[in-house]
Design brief:
about 260 residues, alpha+beta, SH3 type barrels, 5-stranded antiparallel sheet, 5 helices
Length: about 260
């Protein structure tokens, strides 16, 4: 079981209560590097972000020795990690699964992860790689964040090139590629039949999403569904695959259907 260091959990005032922005929840992750002058001492970073003058925070910090500090709870706190505006005044922005997030919305719908480093190109430690791998699994299992590159962004990808350059000590795409293969092979797109008494089609690839069409997207045993895309989402019984229906009404967990052709 993942063990966090919670010494600093929810202590910083640099946050926005999630209750103040109702309806938001973590849907993707932004990965950072701290640019610490002493990256082997995580407490310098942890203490720095307690100061209101810092005006920044994050949800998790992975130290050089692999310790994962839980800094803010994503369920109740929005961290100030992605930068609402670049230095030239342009808002931070990103597109995730067809939805555009701009300015503060980037923070409101994301989880911020920092890996301690000098941000000078020095690679992260092997312990940090292991910690990041563990955290990837945790965020997938806990928040149903797909283990797909499209849902894991590096800070430098969503800001102006002149504003932020982190991370420089790792590439999140490479970390995702290094993760062990899932036990369930990725299904193919095609025609499927519902193999249970009643199957729900949801608005996203997880049971945290409501049933689509205002609760009406339910299909009985034997119903045929055309799947035009496969996404890595919430793992149920170890199976993380969700199918996107060609009708665009939503997603179905692939454990509920069998292939017809």
């Amino acid at each position: 079981m993942l063990q966090f260091d919670t010494t600093y959990l929810n202590r910083t005032a640099n946050q926005t209560p999630r209750a103040a922005v109702p309806g938001t929840r973590p849907l993707f992750v932004v990965w950072h590097e701290t640019a610490s002058p002493r990256p082997t001492n995580p407490y310098g970073t942890l203490e720095y972000n307690l100061s209101p003058r810092a005006r920044s925070s994050y949800h998790y910090l992975v130290a050089r020795d692999g310790t994962i500090f839980h800094y803010l709870d994503p369920r109740i706190a929005i961290a100030w990690h992605a930068g609402v505006h670049d230095q030239d005044g342009s808002p931070t922005q990103v597109d995730i699964a067809g939805t555009h997030y701009r300015g503060f919305a980037v923070n409101a719908w994301s989880i911020g992860v920092e890996l301690d480093g000098a941000c000078d190109g020095t690679p992260i430690s092997s312990a940090q790689r292991d910690g990041a791998n563990t955290l990837l699994h945790y965020l997938h299992d806990t928040f149903a964040i797909p283990l797909e590159r499209s849902h894991h962004l590096m800070h430098r990808e969503i800001t102006a090139p002149s504003y932020r350059h982190d991370p420089r000590g790792y590439d999140i795409g490479a970390l995702l590629a290094e993760m062990p293969a899932m036990h369930h092979p990725r299904p193919d797109i095609g025609l499927y039949s519902v193999d249970v008494a009643l199957a729900n089609v949801r608005e996203g690839p997880s049971t945290i999403y409501p049933v689509a069409l205002h609760g009406a997207a339910r299909f009985g045993h034997g119903a045929w569904l055309q799947v035009d895309g496969i996404l890595n989402g919430e793992a149920i019984e170890g199976n993380p695959w969700w199918g996107h229906l060609v009708s665009a009404i939503g997603f179905i967990w692939m454990g509920l259907v069998v292939r017809v052709r």
